[in-house]
Design brief:
By secondary structure, the protein is α/β, with parallel strands linked by helices. It has helices at about 10-25, 45-55, 80-95, 110-115, 145-150, 155, 170, 180, 200, 210-225, 255-270, 290-295, 315-320, 330-340, 360-370, and strands at about 1-5, 30-35, 60-65, 100-105, 120-125, 140, 175, 185-190, 205-210, 240-245, 275-280, 305, 320-325, 345. The radius of gyration is 22 Å and the shape is globular.
């Protein structure tokens, strides 16, 4: 059994490894696994964290970065670059065939190119995060029959039909491709007890990443990365509430100042209820918020995790002695509750997105449906 595993961030590596470790044990496999990492737009420190986590969680045959192939310059797939991109990817991997390709998503240009590079490989989806459960993720399935597609999108497709089953329109569109869905053989998700599995994933075997496997992976990292030696949080401070920063401004969903003002209000609400905010920046943030929050805090002295923010907070939750967790639309709200039984609260009702994609609106509504608002924290002191 040889598998190609694709990961786009530190937490996705942990989820993928947990699923792989679980399956390998259950099926008594002797796998040869190759890890592909994509860190476009991430800081060098975050990429270093990804490498460190990857080296600890599994015995990979090799770890391969593909940022030099698929980056922000890849704005469109067309007749001129399609075959070259497929061949460049295969040349980078240096393996003729794989039995399985593991990814956290199938929409978007890069996942489509990767699975097209190995047409005989079965596809396995593992959990990415909250995006996975957004009701619109699987709602747009593109026809792989070119004649049907031509009827629907004649003006867009005319003259740019691909030699493969799919038109280039399909690759540049964020929808899913039917011939990719038909190759799905397994799905590994963790939050299936909370959310409904999207319809396009239900057609195959949906397995749960069990809690024991995920906690075991977290413990493996903790035991070998020695992060706890540098973690310094004053556990004499009572009523600490973990506040998770996000990066809405990075994606132009709001301005940095607008996002800052939301966090400032969150700090004020916690201070009014005699809670101490414990801040954690988002792993993908470009311009951190904490120093400005600290400068402007008047009624409370907020704390910050002194570990680089590229490390997933779930690695430290057990050591933080927190009484709650607050975020906007972070999937960590659900991992904190499911893994560590931490009460969670959201400020999603404060979010007003501009130029918003449907995914973010769906996530906002999902979180508001399942997580109590921050205002209710006073009821559970």
């Amino acid at each position: 059994m040889n598998r190609l595993v694709v990961a786009i961030g530190p937490w996705q590596i942990i989820l993928a490894a947990s699923a792989i470790r679980q399956e390998t044990t259950e099926l008594s496999l002797l796998p040869q696994d190759y890890l592909v990492l994509l860190g476009e737009g991430l800081s060098n420190q975050t990429k270093q964290t990804m490498m460190r986590i990857a080296s600890l969680v599994w015995d990979w045959q090799s770890i391969i970065w593909i940022d030099d192939l698929f980056n922000s310059k890849l704005t469109e797939i067309n007749r001129a670059n399609f075959t070259k991109l497929l061949q460049a990817f295969r040349d980078k991997i240096l393996i003729e065939q794989f039995e399985e390709i593991w990814l956290c998503r199938l929409d978007g240009k890069i996942p489509k190119l990767i699975v097209e590079s190995y047409l005989e490989a079965a596809i396995v989806i593992y959990e990415e995060g909250l995006h996975q459960y957004a009701p619109g993720r699987g709602s747009q399935v593109m026809d792989d029959n070119w004649q049907s597609q031509l009827r629907r999108f004649k003006s867009e497709l005319e003259g740019i039909l691909c030699k493969q089953e799919c038109g280039f329109y399909s690759f540049n569109n964020r929808g899913l491709l039917r011939n990719h869905i038909s190759r799905l053989t397994k799905v590994y998700l963790f939050l299936t007890n909370t959310f409904t599995v999207p319809e396009y994933l239900k057609q195959t075997s949906v397995k749960q990443i069990n809690k024991k496997s995920l906690l075991s992976t977290i413990e493996l990292i903790n035991n070998n990365a020695h992060l706890q030696k540098t973690l310094k949080i004053n556990n004499q401070v009572n009523n600490k509430v973990l506040v998770l920063g996000q990066c809405f401004s990075k994606y132009n969903l709001m301005s940095w100042d607008e996002e800052f003002n939301i966090y400032s209000r969150v700090f004020s609400i916690l201070a009014e209820q005699n809670f101490t905010p414990l801040w954690k920046e988002h792993p993908k943030i470009d311009r951190p918020f904490f120093n400005t929050l600290l400068e402007q805090a008047t009624s409370v002295q907020p704390l910050e995790l002194n570990i680089h923010f590229s490390w997933p907070v779930e690695l430290f939750t057990k050591q933080l002695n927190i009484v709650g967790c607050v975020a906007g639309t972070s999937t960590s709200l659900f991992y904190q509750k499911e893994l560590f039984n931490i009460p969670t609260y959201t400020f999603a009702n404060e979010l007003s997105f501009k130029n918003s994609s449907r995914d973010f609106l769906w996530m906002k509504n999902l979180v508001m449906r399942y997580v109590p608002p921050l205002a209710s924290i006073q009821e559970n002191k």
